[in-house]
Amino acid sequence: MKLEMKKLSLFIIIMSLVAVTKLSYAQENSASAIVIIKPYIRETIPGTQISSAYMIIDNKSENTRKLVAITSDISPRIEMHEHLMVGDMMRMRKLTTIEIPARQRTVLQPSGLHLMIFDLNKPLKSTQTVKMTLHFDDKSTMIVLFPVAGLKQKQPHH
Ligand SMILES: [Cu+2]
């Protein structure tokens, strides 16, 4: 009887170790360590086929992550952009990646880093939500729902 109890507790200890190992493995090796805060995409300006999208990317992992691509059914061409001042002019520049340092947040916001959506299949209306897939450098992906923000809300000048 005593031996059985010992065996059982040993079994429980081993199983909990396995569970803990699996959990930390999952956290360090998938996009679960990335949290997206307040995503939104702009309603389309009538007569245009472009939009831009914003969010805060929170990297809770110990590793620097890079956003490398964005895909969606709404458009065949979604780019990562930054705004920069060239003399007195605000210009946009295409980026190949957006870095999110370990244990830090990278903010995509008007007049700063943003996602630029070209060649929209359909105009975006403020009642809808848009699904986009974020692709990271560790090959992980994350599907994010972006509510469409109406034109009356604060807009960047593009
Ligand atoms: Cu842009």
Describe this structure in words.
The protein has one domain: Immunoglobulin-like (Sandwich). Helices cover about 20% and strands about 45% of the residues. It has one helix and ten strands. Strands 1, 2, 3, 4, 5, 6, 7, 8, 9 and 10 form a ten-stranded mixed sheet that branches. The chain is elongated. The site of copper (II) ion has 5 residues, from β8.
Question: What is the subunit organization of this protein?
Answer: single chain
Q: SSE order in H/E notation?
A: HEEEEEEEEEE
Q: Helix/strand-derived class? A: alpha+beta
Overall morphology: elongated
Q: Percentage of helical residues?
A: 10-25%
CATH homologous superfamily assignment: PCu(A)C copper chaperone
Percentage of residues in DSSP E strands: 35-45%
The CATH level-2 architecture is identified as Sandwich
Instruction: State the name of the first-level CATH class.
Output: Mainly Beta
Tell me the span between the first and last alpha carbons. Answer: 76 Å
Instruction: Report the total helices.
Output: 1
Number of domains: 1
Number of strand elements = 10
